[in-house]
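Annotated sample (chain length 308).
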Amino acid sequence: MHSLHGCSTPAGRLEWSALPHSIALHIDGPEPYEFAYSRGMRERGRLHAPRPWLVLTAVACALAVVCTMALWRPWLQTSVPAAGGDEPVAAGAELLTIDDDAQVLVFGDSWVYGSAAIVPELGFAYRLGENLGWTVTVDGVRGSGYLKPGIDGPAYGERIAALDPQATPSLVLVEGSINDRKRYAPDVYRDAVNAAWDALAATYPRASIVILGPAPQVLPVEAGTAAIDRDLADLAAQRGWWYISPVREAWISPDNYLEVIDTGAGNDHPSTAGHAYLAERVMAALSAITAPSDVIADAPVSPTPIAP
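Output written by the structure step:
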């Protein structure tokens, strides 16, 4: 006696068939999955007669496995999920106002410093000033983060406390950092970020503050980097600050990874061409959140940043 059964699952069509001594299951989805079971069991060289309860148990176990696979769909998971979805975290954020001759502080880690470019001055932060006509102060410390001290200076909080309070930036762009991914603990990390941001807002109360999340130095995106991206997006939204997510927007993907990242020994940073590309992406992201009358209104528009 042969029977064929089927149902629909999130992965596609699930079908199973049963014979007296065998069972076969099949998922017809993006990546077909098959399972087969045979009742021809031997013990010490003796063939045992069919036992219906064993067949039923095997069917139940097989169906449980297949249903789990149908819901999990591991073949669709190529990296750690990034922060956010296709829509901004919240609507109604005010567009930025940036003057043509704006004074801008770009603060962050080695990506802001310009590591792996032929010279640091070809890094993306410097290119922003050149491309847009802004007076840009570049404050990048290699290896630093909100939790991690850097090669050239301390962690973000201590560095922010040392900023010049007499400076008058109209825009502060805070980048990163992947350097915290190995020290990441949710509560500790969020506390460090909030303390640093409190100090930054108090130092420059008239500045617009935009948070530029970490960009992946390797693919797939590491779990710590994805967690940092999610936390920064959430904390920025709570303050009504714009958040730009290179992770969510896949600025660096398998298609362009080798064109953007210098994978030489000790690098895993943007190359000179990679920094130029990042500058274009940052300009486009800022354009999307800046009033149309401002200087970057004509920059190419990138995928929508995460709004507060």
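Annotation: The chain is about 30% helix and 20% strand.
Annotation: The mean pLDDT is 78.
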